[in-house]
Amino acid sequence: MVAAGYRVLLEQEISAHTQADVLVLNTCGFIQDAKEESIEAIFAGVEAKKNGSVQRLLVFGCLTQRYAQTLAMEIPEVDGFFGVNDPDALLKALGAAWQPDLKTERILSTPDHYAYLKISEGCDRSCAYCAIPLIRGGHVSTPEETLVREAEFLAAKGVRELILVAQDTTFYGIDLYKKRMLASLMERLAQITGIEWIRLHYAYPASFPEEVLEMMAAHPKICSYLDIPLQHISNKVLTAMRRSIDEAQTRRLVDKIRKLVPDICLRTTMMVGHPGEDKRAFEQLLSFVAEARFERLGAFCYSEEEGTPAAQLYRDTVSSSVKQERYGRLMELQSGISFAYNRSRVGKRERVLIDRIMPGRLVGRTQCESPEVDGEIYTDLPFEMELCKNLIGTFREVAIKEAGAYDLYGMMYL
Questions:
Q1: Alpha carbon of 297 to those of 134, 267, 279: distances in Å?
Q2: What is the CB-side half-sphere exposure of residue 171 using CA atoms within 13 A?
Q3: How does pLDDT run across 183-195, given as a tens digit for each residue?
Q4: Alpha carbon distances (Å) from 262 to 197, 218, 255, 299, 358
Q5: Cys-Cys crosslink for 64: which of 42, 81, 122, 329, Cβ 3.0 to 4.6 Å?
Q6: What angle do CA 193, 195, 196 make, to 5 degrees?
């Protein structure tokens, strides 16, 4: 799809050894930290262009969708800025053209044995703090047949794990089929030869479709793993966030998930420092996390995003130092919960997907660990390193021998 003779480099981090005719950078504009990382990457690309290791620099993605004009004025060294809805223009700048018949074919940026499958784009929710609807627009589901073809293509290339993602995976199908179709989609994907694991991320909690849990409990290929960002538990904060769910509903949902999928590994995300979060609300959040004991939990600090309802309606009254202090307390609490959960797995035998090899160790994951965001399973090499490379992308039985706060250590059965 790219003009012959080009070496096109797509990287999030540019090293001193970068060499390319064209450097294409994808950016994020969701929260302040992500914006800063994207700006740093652009300036690194500019330096690479100045020293001659890169001839042209093209930048696309969420940051440029929101701030293209400002970026063009501030960083004129960039040869082109493109938004999230400009693939035709980006391809044209690369001397190529969009080919619809290749829509479901992909070059993997992940290891060969797992891939992310984006099932929809945009979001119809109105969370006060979130800029995604401003950037990505309203919810648009990808037709089920298209997703099945893409998954079949990935399976034929050796992908064994599909990670379903979207801004809101549980809303899948409403626009196309007038009803939620996530469970139906998961069932069809699970029938594809070669796919062994299907993992679900970014499930919105309000009006959560129970049939997804029933499918998860019934089908061995669907991981007993759910990423469901709850964000908070205080009614005061949830109302300010416009989350369309309250404390009682949240607690009932967590109880239902654990009842219907007893071996579930629950990952959630919490936000600290949102307008309206006083000391009492934060202590309420800590108590809920201590009680719910999520196997996986991430957190981030509220940052005011221009154009969002929160920026228009509220003052950001929680100081940066208080946000960081609350973040630290929450993650310290979660570290102990995660460690206790990992210790409960010592002595068990678990199925592990081998992701990579490092000196003296193989590194993999069970169905309870998602790539990049969760811990990993480390095992000693069962034989010499060159032969062990053939184990990457395969499933192996591992006896868990030792636990850390996030990672586990075990012995592989041959």
A1: 27, 5, 21
A2: 19
A3: 999 999 999 999 9
A4: 18, 12, 10, 25, 34
A5: 81
A6: 120
In this prediction, residues 123-141 reach a mean pLDDT of: 93
Pairing of strands 20-27, 377-380: unpaired
DSSP secondary structure of 86-143? -HHHHHHHTT----GGGTT----SS-TTEEEEE-EES-----TT--HHHHH-S-EEPP
194 DSSP assignment: T
Task: Note the residue count of the chain.
Answer: 414
Q: How far apart are the first and last CA of the chain?
A: 43
Which residue, among 297, 300, 369, has the nearest Cα to 333 in the 3D structure? 297
pLDDT digits (tens, 9 = 90+) for 297-314: 999 999 999 899 999 999
In one letter, which amino acid is 384? E
Q: How far apart are CA 95 and CA 285, in angstroms?
A: 52
Query: In 10 A of CB 32, how many CB atoms?
Result: 14
**Token match 């205080």: residue?**
234
Instruction: Please tell me the predicted confidence (pLDDT) of residue 12.
Output: 42
Please compute, for residue 367, the number of CA atoms within 13 A of its CA located in the half-sphere on the CB side.
20
